[in-house]
Structures are given as structure tokens and as C-alpha cells.
Design brief:
601 residues, elongated, 4-stranded antiparallel beta sheet, 21 helices, binds adenosine-5'-triphosphate, alpha/beta, Rossmann fold, binds magnesium ion, ABC transporter transmembrane region fold, 63% helix
């Protein structure tokens, strides 16, 4: 800040030097006489300069002093400029690093419902772009506006020191420049909000092109997607052009105002010179200062656009920083290392948003420890939602979930994570190797434990068939793997985590019969000695569950064993008959037999 201010002040010393030089040459005055012509408030500075010079020296006779003086002056200003630039970057980089880290931590802590509402483009814009814009505004702008402000102050003081009368005229005229700028600010606020919304829309288009490329290709969405992109980018173009009509007017207005200032100064200045109230050197230096003053004032004007945008970005960053995640976990709580009796779901009701209908209605269920409970029912009946609530990805609107006698909200994040894990239909793979993707559930696992999990997930043959083995990269989102391979990696993760409760949501539904048989065997071994909640459409995979729970429209309509429910002839019996009404082909082996055959060497 000091360095930046000094750079600004140095701008003002230049015209002063010209005055002194011209006075010395044209008016044949001595340096002391020139300094005497300055107003009283400059005395401390002039006497400081005099005290630096050797006594009785005649600056003009020592001809090298002027050029050397100029070079020293330039070098000093350059050095300050260098320091100011470096420090600005240092502050900028440190702040950006810190703020982005904090925001990323915030993002990781947000509840899933937040992500249901936001899109990738918005997240990228708010967590990345906004931070850059806000911090660049704060640092770069601060530096330049400091330099500019101080050169305006320095130059104005120079003007005042030469002739306060002329200076008053000039400064009054120049200050009217700020009137159109103030007008501009209001307009900008409106525009920048729309610009940012459009920009986040644009970045959504990019992510869609990236992640949806297969759907785009298959449904031939090329033209439709291009048209949507065009309309978004046209919006931005329109805003930029409208901004230009306003911003473009600023420079001509400022030119006219400064032209007016200079002509008034020339007119009055000539009079002052003729009346002997001002020296020629003084006048020349006055004009130089005035012209130099124009640049910083103009750039202060232009910067106000950027500053305004940065300010708005800063407000948005603050808003995110202050956002309290809707899902709060206690920091201390019951230290459950296992679930003794089971999980009780009591009168549970849930809706994703206050304006959406209830998707779970008064659900009551007991999941005994060590047993397998299967959730079946038509699509949209709320099975996945119930699983999400058991994992506490969302909180119920009404009712409660008890782990033994402990309400789920009283468990710490760590306890909950050590008690439960899940395998979903679509399992996310992180960029990295197969090894990294399995180990993430338990980074401390030994090589033996890792291979046990790999065996249990029936992955060994696949891994061994790869030239790079466990170190094979999975690609972004696991694109280099098949659906079944991803599911088996997810199952290996769950094995390695070894939690008392396992939630399996359609963990085999994406697979063909052969792969399902293999994965089902993996799942059967995962289910041993654990409390399991399994969701599946294919009833063949849940027939052996201890309890089968049938859901419809957010409620439980039936529960019991396969045999009981079939005998009852209710909803489950209907589902079952619908799936198996086609006579089965004759020689279909049982899934397990099939898998054994498949895996046989
Ligand atoms: N994130 C969400 N935001 C808003 N509504 C949602 C969300 N997820 C699911 N829903 C709605 O909640 C209802 C229940 O969905 P859920 O995913 O629990 O059904 P499901 O029984 O698992 O169905 P499926 O068998 O097709 O997987 C559906 O009507 C769905 O539209
Ligand atoms: Mg589901």
C-alpha cells in the first residue's frame, strides 16, 4: 500500500521538476529562490531537498546532475512500482488460496439437498469465478486505485503549489467528471447480475457437452444443444453491447470536460503570466500536471466498472461463506461401535422440499441387527428416499430413526460413517487407479485386507487380466470401466469398510444375467453377518431376505417373508407373479451355480 501510494506521488514530482528546471534556466534563479516561490506548506519538503545538496552548489553548472537526477528518480519510482506489483500478487495469491480452500471445505460440508438445487455451472461460477473476481478487485484494483488516487492527490497539490487560482478552476471543472460515473454505477449493478447468471448458464452448457456427450450423440442433439448455447451466448453479447453504449460515452464526456478545463486554464493562465503573477516555468509545469492528471482520473473512472463487478462478486462469496449447512452433526455423541438390537424407523415422513409432496408418509419399520430387510415396490414409491434417510443424507420432516435407542441426529458424522456404508446403482469413481478407488473407504487397510475385499467382490480375475493390474486408471467418473466392474469396485469398497450396516440400492440392476450372477455372489458374501437393507426390482435377488417390505406411494403396504407374502396373495404376490409369469426356460442354472461355473478356472 505504501509502495503503491509512493508510486502515485512520484507522478506528481515530474512536473514539479520541470517547473524547477525551467525556472532555473529561463529565469536564472537559484534553487533557493525557486523554492522561495513555493507556498508555505511545501517548506518541510523543499528544505529537506536543500539539506541533501552540498552547500553552495550551482545545479546548472554541475550539468550532470539533472540527467542523473532524472534517472535516479525513474529508478526509484520503478523500484516502488516493482515492490507494489509483487506484493499485490503475493496478497492476491495468498487470499485466493485461502478463500478457495475455505469455500471448498464449505462445499464439501453442504447437505445433498443443496446439490439437488444447484447446477454445475452455478457451483463453478460461485466457488471459482466469483472468488477470482472478488479478490482481483480487492487487490489489483486496490493497488491501481491507490496509485491513481495518490497521483491525483500529488498532482492536485502540485497545481495548488504553482497557482491556487488556476488550480481551483482546473479542479472544479475536472471534478464534474465524476457525475456521469456515479450514474454509471447504478446501471452496472443491474447489468453485472445478469452477466453472471448468463455466465453460469454457459458453463452448464460446457459440462453438459462433456458429461452428456453420449446422450447427445445417440439422440442427435447436436443442433438442439448448439441452439441452446447460442441463445445463452447471445444473451451475454446483448448485455456486453448495451454496456458498451453506456461505457463508451464515458470517455468522450471526460475528453470534453478536460478540454474545457485546459482551455479555461490557458485563458486565465496567459493573463496571470502577463500580470507577472506566474512564471513561464510555472505555467508550463501547470499544464503538464493538468495533462498528467487526466490519465489517473480517467482510469479511476474506468476502474469503477471493474470495482463494481468485484464488489458484487465479493458479496456473493460472503453469502456462501455465511451459509450454514442445513444438515448439522453434533461434535460429540454416543460412541456406538456397533448396533446391538437394531434400527427403528418411527412414524417417518419426508418431503424433498416444502413445496413438493410428501414422498414418505408415516413409515414404521424395525431392522433387526444381523438380518436382511429388502425394500421392494414400484418405481417412485420411496425406497431410495428411505435409504437416504437411514444414511442421514437428509433429515426427516416428521418422526425419527433410532440406532438402538439413539436418535440418528445425536450421532457424530464419524460414528455414522463407521456404522454404515452403501452400494448404489451408479457408483461414483474418482479420478485415479482401481487401487485408490477401493482403498478410499479404508486407507489404512493392509495389502492382505485389500486382496480379501477384491476376492469377496469377485474382482481378482478382472484385476489380474489388466496389464497394469490394480494401478489401472479408471478414468473420469470411471468411464474406462463397465457398469458391472464399477459395481464390484463399490462392493469391494464396502467390504473394506466393514461396517455393521450396509445399504444396497439396486446394486445389481444394471447388469446382465451373467454379471449379475457374479455380483450377486459378491453381495451375498457382503451380507453375511451384517445388518442389510437391500433395494431391488428383481425379486429373485431378495427372495431370501429375512423380511421383505413392500412400499407404495411412500407407505409400507406389506411386510413378511417371501413365503408369507406369497401366501397372503397381496401386492407382493402380484409383483412376483408379474415377474415370473412367463414360464422359465428349462435349463437356467441358479445364479450361484452359474457364477461358480463362470469363475471356474
Ligand atoms: N432429490 C430429489 N428432489 C426432489 N424429489 C425427489 C428427489 N429424489 C427423488 N424425488 C422424488 O421422490 C419420490 C420417491 O423417489 P425414490 O427415489 O425414493 O423412489 P424409488 O422407490 O427409489 O424409485 P425407483 O425404484 O425408481 O428407484 C419420487 O416421486 C421422486 O420424484
Ligand atoms: Mg430408487
Amino acid at each position: 500500500m505504501t509502495a503503491a501510494s509512493l508510486v502515485g506521488i512520484f507522478d506528481a514530482l515530474m512536473p514539479l521538476g520541470i517547473k524547477i528546471y525551467l525556472d532555473l534556466v529561463l529565469e536564472h534563479k537559484s534553487l533557493l529562490q525557486v523554492f522561495d516561490g513555493f507556498p508555505l506548506w511545501t517548506k518541510p519538503f523543499t528544505s529537506m531537498v536543500v539539506s541533501f545538496l552540498p552547500a553552495g552548489i550551482d545545479i546548472l553548472k554541475t550539468s550532470w546532475m539533472i540527467p542523473v537526477g532524472i534517472i535516479v528518480f525513474m529508478l526509484t519510482q520503478g523500484a516502488f512500482n516493482y515492490i507494489a506489483t509483487y506484493l499485490t500478487v503475493l496478497v492476491n495469491v495468498s487470499l485466493t488460496t485461502q478463500v478457495k480452500r475455505d469455500l471448498y471445505a464449505k462445499l464439501l460440508g453442504f447437505e445433498p439437498a443443496y446439490f439437488d438445487r444447484s447446477n454445475t455451472g452455478e457451483i463453478l461460477a460461485r466457488f471459482g469465478g466469483d472468488v477470482d473476481m472478488a479478490i482481483n478487485g480487492v487487490t489489483d484494483m486496490l493497488k491501481s486505485s491507490l496509485v491513481r488516487t495518490f497521483s491525483v492527490i500529488g498532482l492536485s497539490l502540485t497545481l495548488l503549489s504553482i497557482s491556487w487560482k488556476l488550480a481551483t478552476i482546473a479542479l472544479v471543472v475536472l471534478s464534474t467528471i465524476f457525475i456521469p460515473l456515479a450514474f454509471m454505477r447504478k446501471y452496472l449493478k443491474k447489468v453485472s447480475q445478469t452477466t453472471l447468471e448468463n455466465m453460469s448458464l454457459l458453463s452448464s452448457h460446457y459440462t453438459e457437452a462433456l458429461q452428456g456427450n453420449r446422450v447427445i450423440a445417440v439422440f442427435h442433439l447436436f443442433n438442439a444443444k448448439l441452439a441452446a448455447f447460442e441463445s445463452s451466448i447471445k444473451g451475454l453479447r446483448h448485455i456486453a453491447l448495451r454496456l458498451a453504449t453506456v461505457q463508451g460515452a464515458i470517455t468522450p464526456i471526460m475528453h470534453s470536460i478536460s478540454g474545457l478545463g485546459i482551455s479555461l486554464v490557458l485563458w486565465f493562465g496567459t493573463g496571470l503570466m502577463q500580470s507577472g503573477e506566474m512564471t513561464t516555468g510555472g505555467f508550463a509545469s501547470f499544464l503538464t500536471s493538468l495533462i498528467l492528471l487526466y490519465t489517473p482520473i480517467k482510469s479511476l473512472g474506468n476502474m469503477s466498472t471493474q470495482l463494481q463487478l468485484s464488489y458484487l462478486a465479493l458479496l456473493r462469496v460472503y453469502e456462501l461463506m455465511d451459509r450454514v449447512p442445513a444438515l448439522q452433526f453434533p461434535t460429540t455423541g454416543a460412541d456406538l461401535s456397533t448396533i446391538e438390537q437394531g434400527i427403528t424407523v418411527k412414524n417417518l415422513s419426508f418431503q424433498y422440499r416444502a413445496d413438493l409432496p410428501m414422498v414418505l408418509k408415516h413409515v414404521d419399520l424395525f431392522i433387526p441387527t444381523g438380518k436382511t430387510v429388502a425394500l421392494v415396490g414400484s418405481s417412485g414409491s420411496g425406497k431410495t428416499t428411505l435409504a437416504h434417510l437411514l444414511l442421514r443424507l437428509y433429515d426427516a420432516v416428521e418422526g425419527e430413526i433410532l440406532f438402538d435407542s439413539h436418535p440418528i441426529q445425536t450421532l457424530t458424522k464419524e460414528t455414522l460413517a463407521s456404522l454404515s456404508c452403501a452400494v448404489f446403482q451408479d457408483n461414483f469413481m474418482f479420478v485415479g487407479s482401481i487401487r485408490e478407488n477401493i482403498l478410499l473407504s479404508n486407507p489404512q487397510a493392509t495389502e492382505t485386507e485389500l486382496w480379501q475385499a477384491i476376492d469377496a467382490a469377485y474382482l481378482r480375475d478382472f484385476v489380474n487380466s489388466l496389464p497394469q493390474g490394480l494401478e489401472t486408471p479408471v478414468g473420469e467418473r470411471g468411464v474406462l470401466l463397465s457398469g458391472g466392474q464399477k459395481q464390484r469396485i463399490a462392493i469391494a469398497r464396502a467390504f473394506l469398510k466393514n461396517t455393521p450396516l450396509v445399504v444396497l440400492d439396486e446394486a445389481t440392476s444394471a447388469l446382465d444375467n451373467q454379471s449379475e450372477a457374479v455380483v450377486q455372489q459378491a453381495i451375498d458374501s457382503l451380507m453375511r453377518n451384517r445388518t442389510v437393507v437391500v433395494i431391488a426390482h428383481r425379486l429373485s435377488t431378495v427372495m431370501n431376505a429375512d423380511t421383505i417390505v413392500v412400499m407404495a406411494h411412500g407407505s409400507i403396504v406389506e411386510q413378511g417373508t417371501h413365503a408369507q407374502l406369497l401366501a397372503d396373495g397381496g401386492a407382493y404376490a402380484n409383483l412376483y407373479n408379474a415377474q415370473f409369469k412367463e414360464p422359465l426356460p428349462v435349463a437356467v442354472p441358479s445364479p450361484t451355480a452359474f457364477a461358480t461355473e463362470l469363475l471356474a478356472p
